[in-house]
Amino acid sequence: MSEKAKILFVDDEEAIRSLILTVLEGDGHTAHGVGTAAAAVQAMTDTPYDLVVIDKNLPDGSGIDLLRDLKRRYPGTEFMILTGYPSLESAIEALRAGAFDYLIKPVLDLDLVTQKVARALERRRLLQQAYRGADPAAASDASALAQALARQAGALRAAVDGGKTAEAKELAKAVDEAAQELARRVGRG
Fold first, then answer.
1. Rounded to the nearest 10 degrees, how much is the dihedral formed by the CA atoms of 33, 37, 39, 45?
2. pTM for the structure as a whole
3. Of 132, 149, 177, at which residue does a domain stop?
């Protein structure tokens, strides 16, 4: 059972928004949906959300650009990107922008959605726990390392899924080194 959280779902397709909000609320979360980037910015200004799921293509802008902006303003929030036009390039772009994960429409496996939400919230909880009592500079440094590690892990996942063995081996080494460095930094916080 995952932590209960406040989740913002940003998608201009009313049917998808309604379905996902129902699933999230059924899992015990407080969920709110909006259909535009501007509404998402306003929602985040009004309420601190634990997790934000953003459609990659919004009527008033790029979901990736929105992700970058919100991640910069709200580093303690986890983010996921949702797209109906998946590609390796867009997955890497989303992960580099700070997304924890990447969901593909149509969302047919609702259990997968709840699993990914639970993992994102668990990551957020663990990072908050690690930073409790740490000085802000160390927490910021560790947060940057954790974000880099998440991006590298996403790129590794994409390389493995794409059958790019040589690239995956190099990325695995980089992920291992980044994880060790993060563990050292959090341990001394």
1. 100
2. 0.68
3. 132
